Amino acid sequence: MAEVGNELQRHAAEEQQAQTDGFHLVIDALKLNGIENIYGLPGIPVTDLARLAQANGMRVISFRHEQNAGNAAAIAGFLTQKPGVCLTVSAPGFLNGLTALANATTNCFPMILISGSSEREIVDLQQGDYEEMDQLAIARPHAKAAFRVLHAEDIGVGVARAIRAAVSGRPGGVYLDLPAKLLAQSMEAEKGRKSLIKVVDPAPRQLPAPDSIDRAVELLKGAKRPLILLGKGAAYARADADIRALVEKTGIPYLPMSMAKGLIPDTHPQSASAARSYVLAEADVVLLVGARLNWLLSHGKGKTWGKPKQFIQIDISPTEMDSNVAIAAPVVGDIGSCVSALLGKIGNDFAKPGAEWIGAVDERKEKNLAKMAETLAKETTPMNFHGALRVLKDVVKANPGISFVNEGANTLDYARAVIDMYEPRKRLDVGTWGVMGVGMGYAVAAAVETGKPVLAVCGDSAFGFSGMEVETICRYNLPVCVVVFNNNGVYKGIDKNPTGGADPAVTMFVPGARYDKMMEAFGGVGHNVTTPAALEAAVNEALRSGKPTLINAVIDPAAGTESGRLTNLNPQSSASK
After folding, report:
1. pLDDT tens digit string along 421-479?
2. Domain end point (choices 195, 226, 248)
3. Euclidean distance between CA atoms 190 and 142, whole angstroms
4. Could you say which of 162, 195, 228 is where a domain stops?
């Protein structure tokens, strides 16, 4: 009888081993497609999904807020060209992650937001389930694509479609809805294995039409004052060698947008960053590579652009052409293929820009660089933005392989102009929307994905959006050094309540706050610095040690300006003028 009992137990065990469930199928589908990291926040109904992912060899980085986890997943997508995955709970957690998903779509970062959800039959009848919400309907307007999986045998298809949608064509955010009941569904393990899909060539090359290349080359040949403008799409494309070859072969000055800085070192002789206003106004032909004529470039018109000009635009989306101004030579295709095709058509007889144009650009560069050097050299007490950034400029130059995360108003604007980048995809900032709060999520993902130190420089206002994630940085012992430029408020720390009442002004924070104590509270290293010399010593110590560090850099409360350099976007009440 004992033998019969053992045999029955063996058969039961075999049957159990021959089963799988939705939890494991989601994990297996992600792993099959090379997804190694998940950023998220566990809870009902995805707690076991996170636990099992970790148990099955995936790295699961658990955050304190879903929006920060989503920002981490988004920038992971930018850094790796694979969709970063964010895992959230239903309803409120989903909505927190949705902000990051929308930002990823706007910035063309490949990302997948996976959220648990209530069952369809309850949602559709509005029966009041726990965290009931029609998440798929809410996600669709803010994502490149949105899918819901209802049956375990369709998980492989759902994950495959999400991956392909996230990275093909113009990358973006994808929402994948997994109702709680789906995760517990079981099926035969072998059938489950066969239902999974390894996506083949998820972002296929899209070759440009030959005549579009000919048109673009002819326009460049006829230009007297040409300019190449590089956007973050150019950095994402990883066509680094060909882009540099195009710039150097043509001899055309180039201007990088902020997240394209370092694609070619900012110190390259053809860089026109220090003459930005001049080249935008004076150029007659502008080649846009992975850049869009949105608000960051004044929509391609107005005083910023000065003299009439013609545009050549490389973009994978044909509908991007003519979105603000006429594009004389649209080149539609993936950036790598388009730049390679241009190189193939530009022969050794290509006439480089004349000495008059190059000389005029160089003259303004030298003038502006000299003016900037004079500003940076000034010693002020208390420390101002430029004094602090002079130190960080030298730190980045000495450590070109670190990731530099930057957010804020003045902290962002001044740093863009001051700090040179030397390697591609090392400057990570607020991007197209200019949102606050990306800093700590980006810093965590940059450390996880690159395995190298991260220097995150944030204004005190920007840091407040995601500052609790310093605990995450400490928990995972990540080599992140956070520098908070603390000037006691939004823009400035000297505003007054116009009524004279006891409440502080709406832009004011607690004076003399010690953000460094937050990092110390979780076991990291904190520094409070008031001079450039002390800031330099603290940052270098952090980079040497690799320990989680936060430096509270005390900045003159009067040093900032309203809205950074975006004052024109902040209309004032006529009653206050």
Report:
1. 999 999 999 999 999 999 999 999 999 999 999 999 999 999 999 999 999 999 999 99
2. 195
3. 37
4. 195
